[in-house]
Amino acid sequence: MILTITTTHQPATDLSYLLHKHPDRVQSFDLSFGTARVFYPEVSTERTTVALLLEIDPVGMVRGRGAEQNSLFDRYVNDRPYVASSFMSVAISQVFGTALGGRCKDRPELVTTPIPLSVRIDVLPVRAGEGFLHRVFEPLGYTVEATCHSLDDQFPEWGDSPYYSVTVMGTKTISELLTHLYVLIPVFDNEKHYFVGEDELDKLLIKGTGWLAQHPEKEQITRRFLKHQSSLYREALIRLVEEERLIDIEELPEPQQQEESLERPVSLNDQRHGAVLAALRASGARKVLDLGCGEGKLLRELLQDRQFEQIVGLDVSVRSLEVASSRLKLDRLPPRQAERLQLIHGSLIYRDRRLEGFDAAAVVEVIEHLDQPRLAALERVLFEFAKPATVVMTTPNREYNVMWESLPAGSFRHADHRFEWTRHEFQEWANRVSGQYGYAVRFIPVGPEDETVGPPTQMGVFERV
Fold it and tell me: If you placed Cys at 85, which of 52, 179, 189, 447 could pair as Cys (CB 3.0 to 4.6 Å)?
């Protein structure tokens, strides 16, 4: 089976930088089920095409399958070596993993640049019909062309086969394109070659962040990707529905400006960041996460402190990450500085193994943007799975809102806040979470503290015991 990617972006040879594959040589990659080869059929500044040729080892494919196939006959007579399937998806992740992850060391500015891309897949099994093919790709902004192959040209009366040569065209970043292919190609594959369990559920939700929750065919995509396993499918749908409102946050004009405008007279944002930095420094952390990093204000301060050797900023908003990259001037940082900092796109309500192994995490003015189901998901993602040694978390103190004359009674500080807690409510939640997941928590006031209503911001420092 073969997949080609073509661009007419100028210069088109930028494609080789994005994919980290040299256009002047054929490269081979040994996979558990065969060999993947990457080569360039055409290379010019006007038009460049890269090909991923996947050669399946049919004997190796059978070994170790046990009773997974229906019969001994099915094990040896099938279309698996010839059609794009879960094998192709795995090959994309292993051969183009750097590009899939949105990284490009030599030309980082290309990563976030949408370019015209055309993908041809020979062949794709579309047993649900050509209409399903269009319904899967077109809502993502692609144009689809499909040519159905007959079962046998010598016997036209046999009719058409379910196999199509498919061309998908759109203006996307290379990471977006590869992510869509990684998720959607297995959707047409009825027989995954790997075990489908919770790891595959996590992969689907991570790769689907920002687009799958709003896709009109999300139910079919989810059901087919997870091989019709009802328990996984139900959990995925619940979490996708929860994400829909989270995506809407990106549509709000200039997030955080409303809240910061209200708090500016007391420079609360600066005091908040100062308190968080002090707690992170005191923890002795070297590897730090900024979860919900927004436009990178805290990241800039972390980068200026040499104590922090590895800094990762995560946000659900692609727009905010683009602003952060621009403000931090990532493309102009000295190499040693640039190596310390990474921006990643993701959601705090899905388990993400990229967040594991860190000393500390900052969660600054984030939790109040989550409704209760998402907050419960964040608890597990942060304290059960990522489980950094220290978590520094801030959230507004609702009691203090009466101190701002410009804030109507009963209103929240930001239009997107789902709740704002009193000091008692935050402490009750934090004590429950810390006890459940093996942490101890202490509370620190941030900002000018009033005798009656307390400080404007409350901070909890969670330390794993």
Answer: 189
